[in-house]
Amino acid sequence: MDTKDTLLVLSGGMDSTTMLYEYKERIGACVNFSYGANHNAREAECARANCRHLGIELIEIDLAFMGKYFKSSLLEGADAIPEAEYAPDNIASTVVPFRNGIMLSVAAGLAQSRRLSRVMIANHGGDHEIYPDCRPSFIASMGEAIATGTGNEVQLEAPYTLLTKNDIARRGASLGVDYSLTYSCYKGGEKHCGRCATCIERRQALLAADLTPDC
Amino acid sequence: MDTKDTLLVLSGGMDSTTMLYEYKERIGACVNFSYGANHNAREAECARANCRHLGIELIEIDLAFMGKYFKSSLLEGADAIPEAEYAPDNIASTVVPFRNGIMLSVAAGLAQSRRLSRVMIANHGGDHEIYPDCRPSFIASMGEAIATGTGNEVQLEAPYTLLTKNDIARRGASLGVDYSLTYSCYKGGEKHCGRCATCIERRQALLAADLTPDC
Description:
homodimer; 8 helices; 40% helix; alpha/beta; 5-stranded parallel beta sheet; globular
């Protein structure tokens, strides 16, 4: 029996990389999306490095139209990124409208084309619930849309939906994930800036997992 | 009050063009997708002509990765298209996996970016229920995913879901829609082939509306 039945949405950040290592036995391929954000190129390098290490195919898809037509500070250069912890007021500008819906829809079609029966994504809870397309209610309804729209050939699984980033980092630490091969910073520079919300969250998570912070 | 609150997914075929004319007072912009299918170029010409005629903006988005990575006879050149009426056996090969899910997700993000509160699509019933992502259950769950994933800023409406193509053609005839500025053939030639399922369906619909068939 072929157990490689899963397509994983792999950004190259901490969460999806942890999921890659936790579920590597069932992953048939990964898909990475570029959508015009500052940090896409650095994330993609990490996604490539981890897939190469595990011998798993990585499909890279360019959603350049999002950078052209969509509104988000994440798509407007590093200087537009707020420097503060996740909080509704300062971080709402970094929402990329329906980003997870778009990535999951493309992944669903790609999975069905490849006869893979499962799509996985590493959205999680905690501060990230500022983003409507990370919440449990979105994942539930998107999963239903994927099931009905593929004639029940593809199912969505998002097992980190109720975990915090600290939980994920602890899980990754126990799996031996090398987080130096992941990237988080919304500014997209060579090194993590240490000041944007995602850097602050990364630092807290690495500390919670008794790992050495790199930002 | 600004009533131009809607983004319409406009392929350039009979159904979405009818919807364009029926709902033109509320349409703020249309979006047309190319995804590597034989007929995309001819459809897009029609979408442009109708939007120009009505003075409505048309946003054209290239989903070229679908032609590259997705499996469907619709993406494999004109010779791969079955020549027969819509029926599960002969037409299943023309399904483009989760195509409507992908187009609706992109449209939802684009609508939210433009502060448009509604996405409309002209999926319909009848023979098209061979396609899982045209069915009422898919539209209902995708609508729920769009509402939750945009923080209730965007709603999906698909008012033709329970109509047949004959119903739509009759409605278009009463609105005075010029169907010579629409294109249907899955082979994508200069003229309609008259033999593929969508040409056969087009001919029947035009006859049902007391219009002169062009294929």
